[in-house]
């Protein structure tokens, strides 16, 4: 192969790489663009089939956001969702992190079987569990309370996050813990001071995953909460912005955009830590 052909192939490969990356970026960013442009479109602009749906055919408007914040309790729903999310994240971390570590260090056939059994509980559909959960919530007197959601949501966040953390802990060599214990730390001390900091990427993944599930969960929120002032975003938005066959598309897209952008930013901010080697340079 001569030099000219090699240079041509290298340039072609570079162009192909740029095209693929651009296509992927457009594909992933398009939902956010669609939500953004729909949020600020007028109703006449949205319903006119002759208009270009990807552009503003009429002057942008803030009416959709006005409806969202002043004609509904969207701000309160955001606050409710945040409260439930924080409590569920704390419960999930307190249970999933030590459970994942224990399963990662539990060798033999029983360890693998127990890990699979815990993960399988995550696959149980919520439509099967909300009836027995309703009985539990009623017995505890937590109907129409955000505490009912804080109690129920860990039932599907803890199993998956335990499995997730188990994978992170398995990637940490035993030599690190043994070296820490030789320096005078107990096993618990080595876990807290050595293993947990090395698993910060996994812990952040658990936090983002848990917050995402809390924001999008609908069945339990609809079942256990009846007062609009106690709604979370996933229940309040479709309940008040979908009235029969009337859809407030602009306000719906605005609500989705406001919730999804912080999660996307947080995920991308820590993306390098998710994909990097979690213990690179730990043993030296």
From TrEMBL:
Residues 78-270 form the ABC transmembrane type-1 domain. PROSITE patterns: ABC_TM1. The keyword Cell membrane applies. It is found in: Cell membrane. Keywords: Cell membrane, Membrane, Transmembrane, Transmembrane helix, Transport. Signal peptide: none annotated. The chain crosses the membrane at residues 12-36, 77-102, 114-134, 146-169, 190-214, 246-270. It is a multi-pass membrane protein. One of its GO terms (cellular component) is plasma membrane. One of its GO terms (biological process) is transmembrane transport. PANTHER family: INNER MEMBRANE ABC TRANSPORTER PERMEASE PROTEIN YCJP (PTHR32243:SF18), MALTOSE TRANSPORT SYSTEM PERMEASE-RELATED (PTHR32243). Belongs to the binding-protein-dependent transport system permease family. This is Inner membrane ABC transporter permease protein YcjP. It comes from Achromobacter agilis.
């Amino acid at each position: 192969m001569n030099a000219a052909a090699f240079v041509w192939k290298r340039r072609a490969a570079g162009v192909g790489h740029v095209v693929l990356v651009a296509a992927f970026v457009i594909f992933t960013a398009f939902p956010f663009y669609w939500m953004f442009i729909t949020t600020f479109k007028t109703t006449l602009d949205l319903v006119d089939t002759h208009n270009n749906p990807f552009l503003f055919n009429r002057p942008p408007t803030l009416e959709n956001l006005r409806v969202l914040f002043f004609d509904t309790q969207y701000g309160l729903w955001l606050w409710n969702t945040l409260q439930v999310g924080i409590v569920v994240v704390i419960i999930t971390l307190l249970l999933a992190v030590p459970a994942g570590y224990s399963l990662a260090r539990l060798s033999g056939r029983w360890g693998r079987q127990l890990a699979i059994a815990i993960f399988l509980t995550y696959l149980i559909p919520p439509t099967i569990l909300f009836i027995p959960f309703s009985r539990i919530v009623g017995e505890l007197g937590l109907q129409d309370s955000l505490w009912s959601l804080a109690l129920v949501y860990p039932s599907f966040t803890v199993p998956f996050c335990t499995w997730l953390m188990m994978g992170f802990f398995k990637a940490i060599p035993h030599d690190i813990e043994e070296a820490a214990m030789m320096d005078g730390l107990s096993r618990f001390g080595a876990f807290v001071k050595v293993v947990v900091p090395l698993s910060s990427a996994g812990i952040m993944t658990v936090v983002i995953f848990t917050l995402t599930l809390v924001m999008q969960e609908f069945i339990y929120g609809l079942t256990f909460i009846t007062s609009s002032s106690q709604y979370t975003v996933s229940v309040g938005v479709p309940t008040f912005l979908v009235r029969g066959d009337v859809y407030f598309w602009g306000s719906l897209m605005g609500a989705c955009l406001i919730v999804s952008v912080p999660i996307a930013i947080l995920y991308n901010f820590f993306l390098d830590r998710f994909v990097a080697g979690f213990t690179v340079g730990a043993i030296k």
